Structure formats: C-alpha cells, structure tokens
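Q: Convert this sequence to structure tokens.
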Amino acid sequence: MTSNTTATATATPPSPAGPAPRLPLPLPALHATVLDWYEASKRDLPWRTPDASPWAVMVSEFMLQQTPVKRVLPAWAAWLERWPTPADLAADAPGEAVRMWGRLGYPRRALRLHAAAVAITEEHGGEVPDDHATLLSLPGVGEYTAAAVASFAFRQRHVVLDTNVRRVFARAVTGVEYPAQATTAAERRTATALLPDDAGTAATWAVGVMELGALVCTARSPECGECPLFTHCAWQRAGRPPYEGPARRGQSYEGTDRQVRGKLLAVLREAHGSVEQARLDAVWPDAVQRARALDGLVADGLVEPVEQGVYRLPQ
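A:
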C-alpha cells in the first residue's frame, strides 16, 4: 500500500473479453476526483514514504493481509529493524519469523515471507525483483501481492484488487453494496478499464482507490457523505439497495481451532527453546481439540516435534 522508487513500467495484462463497464464519470474526471481526494486525505504510513525499500513494501503487503493497519504498524517497524533486507531474514531460522510475527494472526504468512526472502537472496542477489512475473514466482506471493509490490514499490501499471478496491468498484460502478465473495472476470474488466494509462498515475490510482475503501467506503459503516464519488456513485443513485448475495458471515474466533493454535504458538514463541507437552496441555482444556490444533501446526510447518512430547518452532 505504498509508492516508492520509479522503475520501468510493465503494462497490466489484457482484461478478459466482455462488455465495458458503465462509468460514473468520464475517465479523466474519475481519475482526477479520486487522486485529488487521496492527495488530501491519505494516511501517513511508513511504507509509503519515498525512501521505503521494495522489501519494506513487500513486508507491509504480507502483514496487511487480513490485519488492520494499526496492528501492523508496530510489527512492521520491529520486523524491519531486525531484518532490514531479505538476506537478513533468510539468514535466520524460519521459527524466528514465526516468533516475530507475534499476534498478527495467520502465522503461515511469516513462513511464506521467510521462504520468499530465501528465494530473493539465493536467486535474485538479495534484491526484490521488479518484474511482475518474477514476483509471482516467489514462494508465498500470489496475484494480489505481486501486483501490489510491482505497483507500489516500482511504480508499475497493474490491476491491484484487494477487498477495499473491489468494494469501491462494486458500489461506485456496478451499483451493488458488496462484491462477490470471489473475484470475477467482470471485476477484472472493470478494474482494467479504469486503470490510467500512465504507469506512475496508475500506481497512485491503485493505492488511492484502496485508501478510499479503507477510510470512507468501508464495509459496515460507509461515510458516504465524505466520499468524493458521492453524487456519481451507482449504488447511491440506485437508492443504496441492500446486498442480496450469499450470506456474509464474519469469521468467529472464540472457541475455534484458530484460538487454540494461537495459544499453543504463544507458549512456543515465549519459550525460546523446546517445550514439553505438559506446558502446551495447560493452555486449553479440551484434549481432542488441543491435539487437533497442535497436529495442524505441525502439518503447516509452524511447529516441529523434537522428540515424543517435545516441540519447538521450526529451525
């Protein structure tokens, strides 16, 4: 979610064939409206500063997946202080990445980021590659992250579709409250059609729309009166029709295997060494659920059995 150094731009892939979207404004006016709003309203985030390295941008993108900015900020700063380059992280054990990940949630992201750092160090001279296809080939880097890093770190022209962007386009262009649960070809056509031709402008547009979704066009309580697209928004003009798609269920946490996994990992992170089964047994009363959660951590590579009844973070 940032802009950084300038590099040779790479055009976004062609959109799938289909009808062109109906735009709320002529394209130049739409771009100007969002870009002007972004310039006036954007948050001052450290991974958006001109001196933020591509590695700093990549770390932020891994951490920001399914995690709010306010929780990411201190974790991101601590991570970059300890591992300012991919080589620094690659030289450390993957378990240390899991330890530093702390309570950000979804700790497999830490292992994936470590694996990406190893690949960058061993295959790309320790420099985050600026080629979109090469980024996509890195362990743990999917379509969104590759496009985001290419766009925000290297100022290239790519479609960057996260939940915030999809929601803005769903409301402003399509006229529905929420996008489909999975990204559709129609959404990709819309995003491609709206992308500015100039690479640098496209990179700023990508983060600007994302910021609009994060700050104004939010999921639960959109601040429509503050939106620069208020008078042009297709959803507003249609009378804000309620969502009619499949039920949108929030992810529960209390009492789930995710909670148990988190408690088990917390013991291992704090131990800085091997942990005996008895210490893990103390964190959750349900033996069956506890065993299932521990087995899942081992299967995911987040925990290593040392010997019978003894565990540690991966080395």
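The chain has a mean pLDDT of 92.
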